Amino acid sequence: MADPFKRLSKQSLSDRLARHIRRLIQTDYVQGDRLPPIMEMARRFGVGHPTVREALKKLETMGVVEIRHGSGVYVSRSHEVLVLASRDFTGTVTKKLLLDLIQARAPLEVLSAGQAARNATAEHLAELRRLLNAAAESLEDDDVLNQVNMAFHRQIAVASGNTVVEQLLDVLQELFTDEQRLVLGIFGSRKRDHEEHLAILDALEKRDEELAVKRMSAHLAGVREAVERWEADGVAA
Prior knowledge:
Number of strands: 2
Mean pLDDT: 83
Strand order of the largest sheet: 1-2
Number of helices: 11
CATH architecture of the largest domain: Up-down Bundle
Oligomer: single chain
Largest sheet: 2 strands, antiparallel
CATH topology of the largest domain: Four Helix Bundle (Hemerythrin (Met), subunit A)
Distance between the termini: 19 Å
Low-confidence stretches: 1-10, 80-88
């Protein structure tokens, strides 16, 4: 198995900037708003404009913004924020922490899968399909794949119609971004992970609540088992 710490260490400035812009959108913008010009954002953030462009492309892949060539960058999705993560987690990464993270996610994501099977609109399902198509094209690109996979899980929460669950998952993603990336790296098989995501979407499209819950539960159980088996230098048990 490839070393997941290698992927974690490659988190780029554009990844961090994408997260920062996303937080700004959540607090300061609504759907349809136009963001400042790229050159202005580069000046405000103190980075080069190629970094801003790369961060915005990541957000576009996740469906957060739309880049309209010759017009600007517009907010595609912005929701009222009930809970905000105050900062990224800065404690020691341990196997227990990773298992705790999965344990915290599981009931929220299983609940959201069941509710999404009942409540998802055609637009929600189309967005989930778009994200998985993007994932299929990025199985060899860990940075993009990690972004899209987390966006897929988040979009299921959006489709559930449960605003509190959606935003609790947002908080977990914001606080433990690097740890979530590490968990995805530990899971290992990109193909298996993608196939399980496709199976979950299939259950949602069939409006089969029981099947959606079963497949999401099995998916997260597989992730937990991979972490339980994992041993790596530099990470405490």
